[in-house]
Amino acid sequence: MIRRGLKNFLLVVFIIVAVFYVLSLRTLPEEIAYGASFSKFHSDELQLDWKKTYLAILDDLKVKNLRLSAHWPMVEPEEGKFNFNELDYQMNEARRRGALVILAVGRRLPGWPECHEPDWVSRSSPTVSLKQERILKYIETVVNRYKDYENIKYWQVENEPYLAFFSRSLCGELDEEFLQKEIDLVHGLDQARQVLLTSSGEFDPWFQTYKRTDVFGSSAYLYVWWKTGPFRYPITPGFFRIKQNLVDLVYGKKPKVLIELSTEPWLRQPIVGTPVEILLDRMGIDKFSEMISFASKTGFDAQYLWGVEWWYYMKTKQGHTEFWERARELFSK
Asked: Does domain 38-331 have CATH number 3.20.20.80?
């Protein structure tokens, strides 16, 4: 009986391993289109001249695929009074150079604290329905302003909306019905372009996000810093190939993008003021190169790096040019 039980156990293990092996099989792209996320918000956090940083990304690194964010506080600093100075500059400079843009809109956009609201929202303490009306109005205004730009590639709506546990205290619980309203609004305003929704590569199973979107985007983080200390997720590129194959099987194939490939240190305090030794320990050039190599085996043919402002910070403020130089090589391919 014991021997038979052991055989059955080993058979089950073999079947499970075989299934996951088959699911991990995915043709890798011959070429990868690299891009980068840029945020004035993050540049300001690093005490950089955001325009110089942005132009260096365009003219020195020659990035041709960008993800930009229309952070609500930047776009509508006062209720009903919109400011497009910064975003117009970013969009126009990208257009002049033929750079394609994924433009992100919504309350939850890239960068801590995840959910970004103008000060006037908290001061006025609107009801949930009234706040949602204002969010929709802001999204409508942004989309209408830029939908005639020929270099808009996709509209990103919100950022990792199903990652509810992350920054729950600031973002609250996800309202799926409202998320769908945002998606429908963007589709209605610009029927020529697809909507991109994003999801956590490590935590989210992707199904909920994938079924709602035209184009799917995943993040990829390996080195994080939780309350327990620095940590590397015990995953391989096959983990991402398996997840892609699973959502393809359930919902059919859709365009997919590695939208947020982490190439800056994950810290528990602001980057500015953190000793350079800690910065390099959490994201040295060895880990930077590992992230690029890891991502190249995930099966995504479009990959947007996260951390370009930090590379510029390290180059101009800390005298470490290695990240910038490695990125230049990458974008020259």
From this structure: yes
